[in-house]
């Protein structure tokens, strides 16, 4: 196999940055896309020949090797099951599913069908975080002690992400799942305890009363080795998406800023088209991203997944279907803890 032929499910935000990554990879080609809107614009922009509204039709095609799942969270289960039934390899965006039962069924069925399920945790490929891991491996901060990490912004562009029944939760499920997945990878071990706190959804939310999921959520995870990590996701942060990781060691510390660390500082009176994700103005001082999709890890992540298919290799720890399942388990344990006020124990 020289090229992986991709069937894209979804045609908007995530499908767009996936297509951008494939356009940079001569060994990847989107042959068809299934979605319920934006098909004409998407197919024109990315040169995709065939469009359709039914993802089942896409999964059946002989000219598709891999199904890329870029639809709202509640649909991940059905698309993954259909793709696996048709023996296609699968890339699934985060979170893997909206319930533990769905996620487990997906992981088990994919295994039975003998296809690959690759979980889209892009932070594991963010160049700044990989450089931080290199420094840690060199001994730069001594023994790692604890981590604080967050993804926060001013609210989701996707109406599906704003409603619990489509999202599986609120900002903890939709945003904090990134730091949770990354810290698991960084520590290379399982979480064994979680405590969670959330704003509560609807009228209980701090700002987005029309979101049924929480607009602020945080959890403290304890890992097998006894180390802790604090992970946060919120929709109450104005001024652009803020993705940060602080890693504390016995001999040093690392502060990593994925979204506000552009080498360009711009001062503009009239403003311009785009600076970084979720900014509502580009006037006055901003830090316009140079290559946002690469900085967030999408480009290298999708190249890695395509290589896994071409070389017939299994994805590494952190981005396997099982890791996606573990992240869903952790988020749902955090919700349970937020509700009961108790620590939830497990092995995820
Ligand atoms: N890794 C990341 O940083 C990141 C960033 C954004 C979104 N995501 C994930 O990507 C996924 C999609 O999010 P988005 O922001 O692109 O959402 P979106 O609302 O922008 O787009 C949703 C897409 O799903 C399609 N769709 C909806 N119902 C469908 C159906 N029944 N059949 C086929 N297509 C259908 C729509 O046509 C649309 O193209 C979500 O799971 C989200 O969590 C990940």
Task: Count the beta strands.
Answer: 15
| Rg (C-alpha, Å) | 20 Å
Report the average pLDDT across residues: 97
Q: How far apart lie the N and C ends?
A: 35 Å
Q: What is the 3D form?
A: globular
In the CATH scheme, what's the topology name of the largest domain?
Dihydrodipicolinate Reductase, domain 2
- Under CATH at level 1, the class of the largest domain stands as Alpha Beta
Q: How do the helices and strands follow one another from N- to C-terminus? A: EHEHEHEHEHEHEHHEEEEEEEHHHE
Show unreliable segments. Answer: none
Strands ordered across the widest β-sheet? 12-11-7-10-9-8-15
Largest beta-sheet details: 7 strands, mixed
Small molecules held by this entry = nicotinamide-adenine-dinucleotide
Computed structural class: alpha/beta
CATH superfamily of the largest domain: Dihydrodipicolinate Reductase, domain 2
The number of helical elements comes to: 11
Strand content: 15-25%
The assigned CATH architecture of the largest domain is: 2-Layer Sandwich
Helix content: 25-40%
**Domain unit count:** 2
Description:
- By secondary structure, the chain is α/β, with parallel strands linked by helices.
- It has 2 domains: 4-122, NAD(P)-binding Rossmann-like Domain (Rossmann fold, 3-Layer(aba) Sandwich), CATH 3.40.50.720; 124-297 and 328-345, 2-Layer Sandwich (Dihydrodipicolinate Reductase, domain 2), CATH 3.30.360.10.
- It is built from 11 helices and 15 strands.
- The chain has helices at 13-23, 39-46, 55-60, 73-85, 100-113, 127-137, 164-167, 171-187, 292-295, 298-310, 321-340; strands at 4-9, 28-34, 50-52, 66-69, 89-93, 117-120, 144-152, 191-198, 216-223, 228-234, 242-249, 253-257, 266-268, 284-286, 344-345.
- The chain has a 7-stranded mixed beta sheet.
- A hairpin with a 4-residue loop joins strand 9 and strand 10.
- It starts with a strand and ends with a strand.
- The mean pLDDT is 97.
- The structure holds nicotinamide-adenine-dinucleotide.
- Nicotinamide-adenine-dinucleotide (NAD) is lined by residues 9-15, 34-38, 55, 70-73, 75, 93-94, 120, 122, 158, 160, 174.
